[in-house]
Design a protein that fits this description.
Blueprint: E1 2-4, H1 9-20, H2 26-48, E2 62-67, E3 72-77, H3 84-92, H4 98-108, H5 122-127, E4 133-141, E5 149-154, E6 159-164, E7 174-181, H6 191-202, E8 209-221, H7 228-243, H8 249-260, E9 265-276, H9 293-304, E10 313-319, E11 325-331, E12 350-355, E13 358-361, E14 375-380, H10 396-428, E15 431-433, E16 439-441, H11 451-469, H12 474-478, E17 482-485, E18 493-494, H13 495-500, E19 508-513, H14 517-521, H15 526-531, E20 537-539, H16 542-551, E21 553-554, E22 557-561, H17 574-587, H18 589-599, E23 605-608, E24 618-622, H19 629-637, H20 643-650, E25 653-657, H21 662-669, H22 684-701, H23 708-723
Helix pairs in contact: 2-6, 11-16
Length: 750
C-alpha cells in the first residue's frame, strides 16, 4: 500500500537533510537512540502486559551490520516494534512520535516518576537516515502482530509504501532499519568507522550495542576427490608394506618424504563475529558510595584518551531543583595538551553533554573559558532533543545547567584548597604526647607540601582570568587566589591570611608588580614599608595588573599600589603631616615650578613627596588614574596596543622630590627664586644635574629613561669632570712600523 507523506513532511525532510544537522555522522547516534527507546519501552510494558512476552524471548540488544556488496547498513533492535498503524502514524508524520506519545501516556497514568527513559523525538531522529541514504527500508514486528511489515521510502519522494515482508517473520519482535547508502557515504561500510562513531556517541547506552565484523582466512581442507574405495586400497597397501620385510628403512623414509611433499589444499573461509561496543558503564548513574577511587580515575582517563596523570580530585553530584541532572567533574593534575597550543580563550570545553547516557556533544561550552581545563560529564533528562539537537547552546535549560556547573566547579576547587591547607597544617603540627603529658614534635617528618599550591602554580592564570571576567563569582574566585609577599619567604598565601596579618591601623592591601621577584624585591618603593614592618604582596604575572584594576578591593580593604603617588599611613600624626606638607611645598615651590618647565611632557607634574622616600632623592610614581611602571611595560610588549593608548599611559607620571635629601637641597640653591628676574636661568651644570635627577627618578620608579642619548652625554660629562680631563678630543691615530713578512713554515707532510 502506498501512502502520501503529510503536507509539511517534504519541506521538513529538506530541512533535515540540508540544514538541521551539521555533521552527517549523527544519523547513527539518532538511530541507536531510537532503538534504545524501543528496548526501554518493551521492557517497561512487558512488566505489566503478559501478552507482550513471546514464548521464545530474545535478549534486549541493538545490532549493527553492514554489507559492502549491497552497500547497505542495518541497525536492528529487539524492542517493542511497530504495528501497521504505528508505522503509518510515526514514520509518515514528522511531528508525531511514538516515544513522545508514550511518555505522555505514562504521565496521564500517573507514572511520571517511572525509571523508564526515552530519548528524543523518533520522527526527526529517524529522518536523519536520509543524510546518507538513497532509500530507507524499515522492517518491524510488534509482539502482538502475526506478520512482519516493511515501511519503505526513497530519498526525496513524496510517498512511502507499507507491505508484508516477503522474507517472512525474520524478527521475533523489534525493528530493523536498512539504509541503502549513497555513493558518498561509503565510509559507513567500514567496521572501524562504525565502531568509532557508536562508542563516541552511544558508549554508555544501557543496552548492549553489537557490531558484526567480517574477516576471511585460509584453512587446510582434505582432498574431496578421494573416494572410499581408494581409501580401502591405500589401507591394504599399507598392510602389505608392513609385512614386506625386504623393504629397507631407507625406502620407508623415501615414501614418507614423498607423501609429505604433496601440496596442501587450502580454501578461503569468511567468518562473522559480534563485538560489543559499549562495555563501559555510565558510572555517574551509580551511587557514589559504591564507586571506588580506582573506578573514578579509570573513568577520568577514559574521558581524556591520553597519558595525563591521575585527576587531583573530583565531584560526583546530582543537581536537583528546577532542572535535574547528574554530573562528575574532575580537576586535572596537569594542564591538558591543548593548553600548549593556544591561549585560554581558544581552548574548547572538556565536559561532555549526555542525555540519558547518549552523547549529544563534547564541544558545548558548559563551563566558562577560564574553567575549560575541567573534565567531566553532564547527563540531563530534561533537554529537548528534537529539532534543537544541534542548536542546544541557546536552550534555557542548558543555561541553568551551565550556571549550576560553574558553581559546583568553584566549590570543588574551594574544597580542594581547604582540605589541602588543613592536611599540610596538620602534618606540620603533628606531635606525639608522651606519658608525662609533654608534647614531642616528630623531627623525622618533613613538612607536607600543600597540594593546592602545587596545583595553583599551573592553573593560576585561569583563576585570575575568572576574577576579571566572572563578576557574579568574583568573590569566590578571589578566595582561591594565592600570592607571595614580602614576609612569606617564597610561600603563597591567600588574601584572607594577609588581612589577618595586617597592622591594626592598616586599611589597605599593599601590592607591587614587576617582571620578576628579584626585580620587585630590589624596588626602592619597599624601603619605607620595610621600615614600618608592612607586608607587601608581590605580583609577578601580567594578568595581576588587570586583576587589581577590575577588583579594587577585597573584604572591604582597598588594593593600593605602593608605586602610586598618594600613599598615606594611619600611624602618623595627620595634623603634623599636613603642616609639614604645606611648609615643604612653600619652600620648594621655585624648584618644582622650574623642574616642571624643564621636564615638559615627560611627567604630569612635579611635587614634594607626600610620603617618606627614604634614601631616594626623587622617584617617579604613577598617578591615581595612570598606569604603573609594570603596566606600562606590559602594554608596550603587547603589539595590539595603539600609540594613543601608550601616550595616555606614559603621560600620567608624577615626579616626587625628597625634601630632606641633600642632593635636592643643593639643587634648590641653583634655581632662581620667585623674586628673581624671569630672565635669570640656572647654569648648565644645574640643568644637567636636574636631568640626571630626572633619569634617576625614572629608573627608581621602574620606568625607562625618556632620552637615553642625552643621558649618555651627561654621563660622559660627569666622567670627564671626575677624571679632570680638559678636552674629549680623540688621540691621533698611531702609525705602527711595517713588519717584515715571516716565511711560511715548511709542511712536514711534504
Amino acid at each position: 500500500e502506498s501512502y502520501k507523506f503529510e503536507a509539511e513532511v517534504n519541506r521538513m525532510l529538506d530541512i533535515v537533510v540540508n540544514s538541521l544537522y551539521k555533521h552527517k555522522e549523527v544519523f547513527l547516534r539518532e538511530l541507536i537512540s531510537n532503538a534504545a527507546d524501543a528496548l526501554d519501552k518493551y521492557r517497561y510494558l512487558s512488566l505489566t502486559n503478559e501478552k507482550l512476552k513471546s514464548a521464545e524471548d530474545v535478549d534486549l540488544e541493538i545490532n549493527i551490520e553492514y554489507d559492502n556488496e549491497a552497500k547497505t547498513l542495518t541497525i536492528r533492535d529487539t524492542g517493542i516494534g511497530m504495528t501497521k498503524e504505528e508505522l503509518v502514524e510515526n514514520l509518515g508524520t514528522v511531528a508525531r512520535s511514538g516515544t513522545s506519545k508514550f511518555v505522555e501516556a505514562m504521565k496521564e497514568a500517573g507514572d511520571s516518576d517511572s525509571t523508564i527513559e526515552q530519548i528524543g523525538q523518533f520522527g526527526v531522529g529517524f529522518y536523519s537516515s536520509f543524510l546518507v541514504s538513497n532509500r530507507v527500508t524499515v522492517a518491524s514486528r510488534h509482539p502482538t502482530s502475526p506478520t512482519q511489515l516493511v515501511w519503505e521510502s526513497v530519498n526525496g519522494a513524496s510517498d512511502f509504501s507499507i507491505f508484508e515482508d516477503p522474507r517472512g517473520n525474520t524478527l521475533k519482535r523489534g525493528t530493523e532499519i536498512t539504509l541503502h547508502l549513497r555513493d558518498d557515504a561509503s565510509e559507513y561500510l567500514d567496521a572501524a568507522r562504525l565502531k568509532n562513531l557508536a562508542t563516541h556517541y552511544s558508549e554508555f547506552v544501557t543496552h548492549p550495542i553489537k557490531l558484526r565484523t567480517t574477516s576471511t582466512m585460509e584453512v587446510e581442507v582434505e582432498d574431496e576427490e578421494t573416494d572410499e574405495a581408494e581409501k580401502d586400497e591405500e589401507k591394504k597397501d599399507e598392510e602389505e608394506n608392513l609385512d614386506d620385510k625386504a623393504k629397507t628403512d631407507e625406502d620407508d623414509l623415501e615414501i614418507k618424504d614423498e607423501e609429505e611433499e604433496k601440496p596442501k589444499k587450502m580454501k578461503e573461509v569468511t567468518t562473522h563475529t559480534w563485538d560489543t561496543l559499549n562495555s563501559n558503564k555510565a558510572i555517574w548513574t551509580r551511587d557514589k558510595d559504591t564507586i571506588s577511587d580506582e573506578e573514578y580515575q579509570n573513568f577520568f582517563h577514559l574521558l581524556n584518551d591520553n597519558d595525563m596523570q591521575n585527576a587531583t580530585t573530583w565531584s560526583h553530584f546530582n543537581a536537583e531543583g528546577n532542572v535535574n541532572f547528574r554530573s562528575i567533574l574532575y580537576l586535572p593534575g596537569e594542564k591538558p595538551p591543548s593548553y600548549q597550543m593556544g591561549q585560554i580563550e581558544d581552548i574548547k570545553g572538556a565536559v561532555r553533554l549526555y542525555v540519558r547516557r547518549v552523547l549529544i556533544g563534547d564541544e558545548f561550552s558548559l563551563l566558562p573559558k577560564y574553567l575549560s581545563f575541567i573534565n567531566g560529564v553532564v547527563d540531563s533528562d530534561e533537554l529537548p532533543l528534537n529539532v534543537n539537537r544541534e542548536t542546544l547552546q541557546e536552550d534555557k535549560i542548558l543555561k541553568v545547567i551551565k550556571k549550576k556547573l560553574t558553581r559546583k566547579a568553584l566549590d570543588l576547587i574551594r574544597e580542594f584548597a581547604k582540605k589541602s591547607a588543613d592536611a599540610a597544617k596538620e602534618k606540620d603540627e603533628e606531635a606525639e604526647v608522651s606519658a608525662d603529658g609533654e608534647v614531642d614534635i616528630k623531627e623525622d617528618d618533613e613538612p607536607k607540601e600543600d597540594a593546592y599550591l602545587k596545583w595553583y602554580e599551573k592553573f593560576s592564570p585561569n583563576i585570575k582570568l575568572g576574577v576579571i571576567e566572572d563578576e557574579p563569582n568574583r568573590g569566590k574566585l578571589m578566595k582561591l587566589v594565592r600570592y607571595q609577599t614580602s614576609k612569606t619567604d617564597g610561600k603563597l598565601i591567600p588574601l584572607a591570611e594577609y588581612i589577618e596579618n595586617m597592622k591594626e591601623w592598616q586599611d589597605s592591601i599593599y601590592v607591587l608588580g614587576g617582571n620578576s621577584l628579584d626585580e620587585i624585591k630590589k624596588s626602592p618603593f619597599l624601603e619605607t614599608f620595610k621600615e614600618k614592618d608592612l607586608e607587601v604582596i608581590y605580583m609577578t604575572d601580567a594578568i595581576d595588573e588587570y586583576l587589581v584594576k577590575h577588583v579594587r578591593d577585597f573584604d572591604g580593604k582597598k588594593f593600593v599600589d605602593v608605586s602610586s603617588e598618594n600613599i598615606k599611613f594611619k600611624d602618623e600624626d595627620d595634623d603634623l603631616q599636613k603642616r609639614r606638607e604645606k611648609a615643604y611645598q612653600k619652600k620648594y615651590k621655585p624648584l618644582t615650578k622650574w623642574l616642571k618647565s624643564l621636564y615638559g611632557q615627560t611627567v604630569l607634574r612635579v611635587q614634594v613627596a607626600k610620603r617618606s622616600l627614604g634614601s631616594m632623592p626623587a622617584v617617579v610614581s604613577s598617578s591615581d588614574f595612570g598606569n604603573s611602571a609594570n603596566m606600562e611595560r606590559i602594554m608596550r610588549a603587547q603589539a595590539f596596543q595603539s600609540e594613543q593608548d601608550m601616550m595616555g599611559g606614559m603621560s600620567m607620571k608624577v615626579f616626587d622630590i625628597n625634601p630632606r635629601h641633600p642632593l635636592v637641597t643643593k639643587l634648590m640653591e641653583g634655581v632662581p627664586s620667585d623674586d628673581d628676574d624671569d630672565s635669570s636661568t640656572p647654569d648648565q651644570a644645574t640643568i644637567d644635574a636636574a636631568w640626571m635627577l630626572h633619569d634617576m627618578a625614572m629608573l627608581n620608579g621602574g620606568y625607562p629613561i625618556s632620552d637615553p642619548t642625552a643621558h649618555n652625554r651627561r654621563m660622559i660629562k660627569i666622567m670627564q669632570s671626575q677624571f679632570g680631563l680638559e678636552s674629549l678630543a680623540l688621540e691621533p691615530e698611531i702609525d705602527p712600523p711595517v713588519e717584515d713578512d715571516e716565511p711560511d713554515e715548511p709542511d712536514m707532510m711534504d
